[in-house]
Amino acid sequence: MSSLQAIRDAILQSPDNISLLLLYSRACLEQLQLDDARESFERVLELDPHQTDAHLGIARVLFLQGETSGAAVRAERVLQQEPENAPAHLLLSRVYLSEGDRPKAIEHFDRAALIDGTMSDPALERELGRSARDVRRTSPAPIIPESGANEGPEDGDQAQDIFDDPFDDPPYDWRPETFYTPGDPNRFGTTFADVGGMEELKEEIRLKIIYPLQFPDLYKAYGKRTGGGILIYGPPGCGKTLMLRAVAGEVPCNFLSVGLHEIFDPYFGSTERNLHQIFETARTNSPCVLVFDDIDSLAQDRRNVRESQLRNLVNQFLHEMDGMRGENQRVLVIGATNQPWSLDPAFRRPGRFDQAIFIPPPDAAARAQIITLLAKDKPISNLDVEALVEATAGFSGADLKWVFDRAAEMTLSAAIHSGQPVPIAMDLLISVARSHAPSTHSWFEGAHEQAQQTTPDAYTTEVRKFLNAPSQREP
Ligand SMILES: Nc1ncnc2c1ncn2[C@@H]1O[C@H](COP(=O)(O)OP(=O)(O)O)[C@@H](O)[C@H]1O
Ligand SMILES: [Mg+2]
Known about the structure:
By secondary structure, the protein is an alpha/beta fold. It has helices at 2-13, 18-30, 34-47, 52-64, 68-81, 86-98, 102-115, 122-128, 132-137, 153-162, 199-214, 216-221, 240-250, 260-263, 271-284, 308-322, 364-375, 385-391, 397-418, 426-434, 441-453, 458-468, and strands at residues 178-180, 228-233, 254-258, 288-292, 331-337, 355-358, 380-381, 424-425. Helix content is 54%, strand content 7%. Helix 3 (34-47) runs antiparallel to helix 4 (52-64) and helix 17 packs across helix 18.
């Protein structure tokens, strides 16, 4: 099964990627590899105990193993968390049907059909003698969100001319899970103000997509185009993923974020076709920002890839990036990775990811910002930002967050045992920080090794520059 193999390869690259693990679990489930499916769902729950999809997945496994009551208990629990979870209703419908309770089976089936306007389950529909379409037809019409198509017609036409569609089939009905139109209230939760440091990157994003939309005439006058490609890379925990989320809150245009699992989802078609569809969606909704987190799984160096399917995917990706070059494309593609050296060098050619920005561990000024952000809304006695900045040289943002979480946990535990609420003491924060070794060290070791194995590339040069800069070295 080459699609399962492709997902497995992707998981090797990103072992803690919950979406990929879920995708893999579901694929196993589909092929009735129940033990593998269950194991992989359990792994998701280890990473995040609140993943309802994984709870539901285990419920499905149980159902298929004939443990209907176990399945029902889990599905009910999911519904307690999310009463509008259509798949949970669907599963319960099956459970009740298998137990001979038709009215209840129908009740849950109808709920699922109304919640999810695209739901269909031919087998169950046949057994129940009713169709999801009919259920919906006889109920009030749901509100379907508008797509962000507020562009003049000529834009779309030109895009078509510049980029020929290599796939004959008409575009299938696909929407990335994260697609924000400019006014979408969900997108404003995180903005640049929530990200400490990274001034260069923030300005680069403004230059490539925010200012061009604010000052179109100026951009035209200077012959500068909108959009392009930015690759951000660096040690884990330094805010790359956070930054991608903040871009959504900052840019005044459509925003698309693509999870690896959406590309590797065999449900829709080949991975190349999925990728093409994603770019197509970005183009037809331009101006637009398109982000790929953990891009290394998609853009691997073809020389190291043995599987032809994955190699085709990389070729497709390169081809799509080239399709962004036209004057009227107005799409900014941002990719993030911890392992820039594992990307195919072809991605760095002009017109693709020609801008690569290194995100180092935060310097003193950025740490002060992050510490201030983390301390907000927390009861801390006599917060001394300076002292903490000094005690946390080399720490990533995630390390800093850990220090605050750990200190809060210890204070909470003391408060519970003494029955006295007390603020988090500054001394405690400092001692927790002192006891923690920055998690970025091993990444720099890896980068160093990388630099010795291969001819120096732009990435390793940049990393070395950072390590050698006296201003960056902190006591
Ligand atoms: N520059 C930063 N500003 C504010 N918080 C940060 C920063 N860097 C890291 N963090 C904190 O650490 C967490 C993990 O960072 P993340 O964005 O997942 O890192 P990466 O994607 O680079 O591995 C974030 O959710 C945030 O709480
Ligand atoms: Mg990340």
